[in-house]
Design brief:
Keywords: Lyase. This is Histidine ammonia-lyase. This protein has 482 residues and is mainly alpha-helical. The chain has helices at residues 11-18, 27-44, 64-68, 73-81, 91-106, 114-126, 143-153, 174-181, 185-215, 225-229, 234-247, 260-263, 265-286, 316-343, 346-349, 366-382, 404-435, 446-455, 468-479; strands at residues 2-4, 23-25, 85-88, 133-135, 295-297, 306-308. The protein has two domains: 2-183, Orthogonal Bundle (Fumarase C, Chain B, domain 1), CATH 1.10.275.10; 190-479, Fumarase/aspartase (Central domain) (Fumarase C, Chain A, domain 2), CATH 1.20.200.10. A hairpin with an 8-residue loop joins strand 5 and strand 6 (306-308). Helix 4 (73-81) packs across helix 7 (143-153) and helix 5 crosses helix 9 (185-215).
């Protein structure tokens, strides 16, 4: 059971809820939301409040009381904003969106009725998740996804399984419509899941690169403490220390100076780790940040009630952080492919070409390099910066967009492709080490031994055969914690 208090939420907890963990609202969060609701109500009596007493977008100057009395506008807003298109997102991604939105509401800046948050928690726990499709958000709030969620809570759209009856609401006040949907919870949730996946993948990929380094008798001087002391960032230094610890005692180097794919390992993995950490820091803030528009602040107890209309919902920082991580991963692909290539080269391993059974022309692992190159093509395409995009919408009232939603969707695709690339390298490095007669117990590094032992669970048959099963097993090993 994950407690949602609106103040702290670990990224791992978002992933846990995505995987099926239940949630509960902390009592203090309910009190905070109720105070925010009272403050918003008091402010709306004093001046116009966007979405509460006015229309939205280009209709922001329209008074709801003059238009229809305001009684039905909330339902109309939810229904009109719920349109999306494309492929349905997986249940895990949708659950991540729901828990992020619940955490943001618990922060107390929306002015929403706490009963809505209670119903959202019930929706998560019942696993009656809404169907959300891929096209809708443009990085300025996931209005469509959350409006569709509201319609599911109202019983107007069927959920994807779960206990439908337990989460149905009987109505939705106008004052609670915009406060519920004005959030980038889907975009943030997607980014969190990809961040957690990449945290494991990049660590395992670094360990696999150490296996490749050993299989090709790399020169450890490039990873040595003097080199680590001279680098430009602490992340690169940390990577150098970690890699040096893994390859300790691996034998004599074959060359005075290695190819870049071995010599620059600290820069490659250090830069990726640095960008991953920066993204994680931002996401840790966003999952509890009440970037509500309008943002309700002040307190009914001292009469300081007010709201602030703003643009914090535009996820420009998130788009740029994801772009930076994508670029770091994309730039590293050249070295991944080169290590795979050199592992198949007798000059670097002392083995048969393509790590085949013999030198009679067998193809061995030849085609795995093609698979890795195809996955790299996907990664490099995804690395094209999304944050340069923009669009003008709603009769010119909204003249910019971050498209962070596109960036986070691409990041998930990159993570899946990277798992394939690293898995190909694992198959190649493990076969090379096995053919060289190396054993996990030779090495003192627990991290290296764990990855080597994982690689040695792959089939030992080196004859030409169908390698799909080997690669699928290797992908699972790359995705797992060791």
């Amino acid at each position: 059971m994950i407690v949602i208090d609106g103040l702290t939420l670990e990224l791992a907890d978002v992933a846990a809820v995505a995987d099926g963990e239940d949630v509960t609202l902390a009592p203090e969060a309910v009190v905070r939301m109720d105070e925010s609701r009272k403050s918003a109500e008091a402010t709306a009596l004093q001046r116009p409040v966007y979405g509460r007493s006015t229309g939205v977008g280009a209709n922001r100057a329209v008074s709801l009381m003059e238009a229809d009395g305001g009684d039905t506008h909330g339902l109309k807003l939810l229904r009109s904003h719920a349109v999306d298109a494309g492929k349905p997102l997986d249940r895990r991604t949708v659950r991540a969106m729901l828990v992020v939105r619940l955490s943001q509401l618990a922060a107390g800046g929306s002015g929403i009725n706490p009963a809505i948050a209670d119903a959202l928690a019930e929706l998560i726990n019942s696993d009656a998740v809404p169907e959300v499709r891929e096209f809708g958000g443009i990085g300025t709030a996931d209005l469509q996804a959350l409006a569709g969620t509201a319609l599911t809570m109202l019983g107007e759209r069927p959920p994807l399984g779960g206990d439908e009856a337990s989460v149905r609401l009987t109505g939705w006040a106008t004052a609670d419509a915009l406060p519920f949907i004005s959030s980038s919870a889907l975009t943030i949730g997607q980014a969190v899941l990809s961040h957690q996946k990449l945290s494991t993948l990049l660590g395992n990929a670094a360990s696999v690169s150490a296996l490749s380094f050993i299989a090709m008798s790399g020169n450890p001087e490039a990873l040595s403490p003097p080199v680590a002391a001279a680098v430009d960032t602490s992340a690169v230094a940390d990577a150098a220390h970690a890699l040096h610890a893994m390859i300790q005692g691996s034998g004599q180097p074959a060359r005075i100076q290695d190819p870049y794919c071995l010599r620059t390992l600290p820069q490659v993995f250090g830069s990726q780790t640095e960008e991953l950490k920066a993204l994680g820091t931002l996401l840790s803030r966003l999952v509890t940040a009440g970037n509500e528009n309008p943002l309700v602040h002040g307190s009914p107890s001292d009469g300081s009630n007010d709201v602030a209309h703003h643009g914090l919902f535009q996820m420009t920082n998130l788009a740029r952080r994801v772009d930076a991580l994508q670029l770091a991963i994309g730039a590293a692909c050249a070295t991944h492919l080169r290590r795979i290539d050199l592992l198949c080269d007798p000059k670097y391993t002392g083995l048969h070409p393509f790590l085949a059974e013999d030198g009679s022309g067998q193809s061995g692992l030849m085609m795995l390099e093609y698979v890795a190159a195809a996955a790299v093509g996907r990664i490099r395409a995804n690395a094209q910066p999304v944050s340069l995009q923009t669009v003008v919408l709603s009769l010119g009232a909204e003249e910019d967009a971050s498209f962070a939603s596109v960036a986070t969707a691409r990041l998930e695709s990159t993570a899946d492709a990277l798992a394939t690339v690293a898995a190909v390298e694992l198959v190649c490095a493990s076969r090379a080490l096995r053919l060289q007669g190396r054993r996990p117990e030779e090495f003192s590094s627990p991290r290296l031994r764990a990855m080597m032992q994982a690689g040695f669970t792959l089939p030992s048959d080196v004859g030409d055969r169908d390698l799909r099963g080997d690669l699928e097993q290797a992908i699972e090993l790359i995705r797992a914690s060791h």
